[in-house]
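The passage that follows is intended for readers who have already worked through the single-chain material. We present the inputs for a multi-component assembly, then the predicted structure in tokenized form, and finally a short commentary. You are encouraged to pause after the input and sketch how you expect the pieces to fit together before reading on.
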Amino acid sequence: MSTIAAHYFDGRRALRHPVTLVPAGGRIKIVGREVNAEFESSRVRVSTRIAATPRWIFLPGGGACVSDDNDAIDRLVRERPMQRVVHRMEARPAFAALAVLLVAALFWAIVDYGLPYAAARVAEHIPVEAEDVLGREALAGMDQFGLAPSGLPEERRAALAAKLEALAALAPDAPAYRLEFRAAPIIGANAFALPSGIVVLTDELVALAQTDEEILAVLAHELGHVRHRHIMRRLLEGSAVALLVAGVTGDVAAATSLAAAAPTLVLQSKFSRDNEREADAYAFSLMRRAGIGPQHFAAVLARMEAQAPRGPMLPTFLSSHPATEERKALSGSQ
Amino acid sequence: MSASVQAEAASVTAERVVRPGFHGSAAEYFRIWIVNLLFTLLTLGIYSAWAKVRKFRYLYGNTRLDGDSFNYFASARAILKGRILAVVVFFVYAIVTELVPDSIWAFLAAGIALLPLILVRALRFNARNSAWRGLRFDFPARVREALPMYLGMPLLVVVTLGLAFPWFMARHKQFVISHHAFGTSPLGCAIPVGKVYGIYFRAGLIIAGMSVVAVLGAMVVSPVAVLVPRAGWLAFLLPVLAIYIAYAFAYAYLQARLTNLAWDSTYGAGVRFSSTLGAIDLAGLYISNLLAILFTLGLAVPWAVVRTLRYRLENFAMLVSEETVHEAAPGLVNIGAAGQELGEIFNVDFGV
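Having made your guess, compare it with the prediction:
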């Protein structure tokens, strides 16, 4: 076997000694001007091969040799199979290209299936009561900015609440919820699900709806959010996405905080759109049980969109809701 | 002490200038990065500890100073243990602070109380797992020494409404550098606080000046939003972008000047250091890295890592006035990686 040019360090002083490694029958001789030692090959530990990075041969007693001659060292000590495989993959441009495709596919699978699935399973095990503080604070916050006490007559509110109760009773898996009526001069006609199962219905939506079926359709959609624990799932998904993005971009320091924030934003708006679709589906199934036609949902959505204040147009990939066109088409197909 | 050593170093005319260099390539690092990312995703993150060791070993091993490469030999198992703890803490923190917003104060208090411990453990982990010429670095600072630094000084920063912050940063960098050692050879560091105040003052001017430009620019483009509603989001985005660029410049300026000042104030046995990072170079590097990473959906990360490392190494120099043979500190034992991983996940700036 051929000899290997290396440098020897005794591990006690930072002094480099040029040496030659001579492999001979299960032993390694280290020969240099100031160094002359011999070790059994089985007692030395060799660092794994990574591209052309210099390899270290750690000797018993604290000394070490370092050499650029990776091929010769591979002949000296056989690496563990796993390490060899990783190195060979890293060495081939073709495999790198394949890895790009596989990483993209895996990333998509994790974001599209893995994370939402895991978040849904974990959310099931977190009691709804955990959201109580958050729900209370969210409603109090909105009451302070934007919401006002409802101006609807007591009987009207009771009637709507009773209708929603009857609708929810039709579903075997209806969640516990609490309906709140509010006037919303700024937000306008809308309904939203808050943490801990609070569903807020605005007076403006009651006024905008032409039938109670339309109101029930929107409320059924909000019940879908409550039933599927979308708020808890978003919290879980948000943290997981932050970790995932940090896992990819983490090696670039603080300079890329924006680079980390942008994909997080895109991914979270994707989760949000998925949640809206899931809530839509829940609403349609609930309405079917109650014999309410899906066209009521489409009609009220269209009217809500028409009277909504025009904000800056966001591209679809940043929007938190699916395009209304898509939802109308979906309600038509139900 | 520092002044006399520096004067002594300056009086020696024949200083040998030693510059580190990176001998790897972005293409090679890309292949390592993508293969290890693939294994990390396949194992749902478990392999990330091994991936980290491989990537660090590549970057360290291809960095040469005075003819010899560095070596990184952290144990992947130790990193994995630390990472699992850090991820659990991160999830608990993220979820609980969302559900009970007031709990942020409890986490903040715990974080501040633990900061000295996390910092010392993280720096020690990194130092002890880094070696040059077969000799390990070390960070022998005691947590006890870090306590007044990282509990007392932040309090002072709060009490003075931030006025003491540059002073704190000077002391922080000084603490971190001066507690590092190569073998038994310690580093010394004395950062002039006045200069740090000057740097922060100028960074503040940069932010203020460029923010004014950004706001004026926004006033010019905002009519566009009215005229062309479809492009409305652009009018919203442009000023935000301008402020981000201002922030990037100020950040790069701080990084460059503070790093230069810290290394220029550092000395060791027979050696001093020099750093010549440029604020505009660094800002250009950050912004182009950011754009490249965004437009390649992350694939440019390894390229960004290599060119940033290369730039930083090119602008670093060791000035040797007296050839010294450094000796090993006996009995360095390996420590856990929990501090290091916690610091990474919560973005603690260990800073140099």
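Commentary: Chain A touches chain B through 67 residues (CB under 8 Å). The two ends of chain A are 76 Å apart (CA to CA). How closely did your sketch match?
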